[in-house]
Amino acid sequence: xxxxxxxxxxxxxxxxxxxxxxxxxxxxxxxxxxxxxxxxxxxxxxxxxxxxxxxxxxxxxxxxxxx
Length: 67
Description:
- With about 70 residues, the chain is an all-alpha fold.
- It has helices spanning about 15-25, 30-45, 55-65.
- It has a domain at about 30-65.
- It is built from 3 helices and no strands.
- The relative contact order is 0.10.
């Protein structure tokens, strides 16, 4: 994957954040990587007019390599 050079700040309930982080840890994943994987999948699924920007098979391969 390319260098991570952008950030995103979101506001969530403390309880939701803690439950998410704990669930990620139990599965052996970093919360940030789970969020990035979700973002890749969501962007690929909903990029109907931008299909040239997202190669779903390449994204799926990249996500598998992180697990």
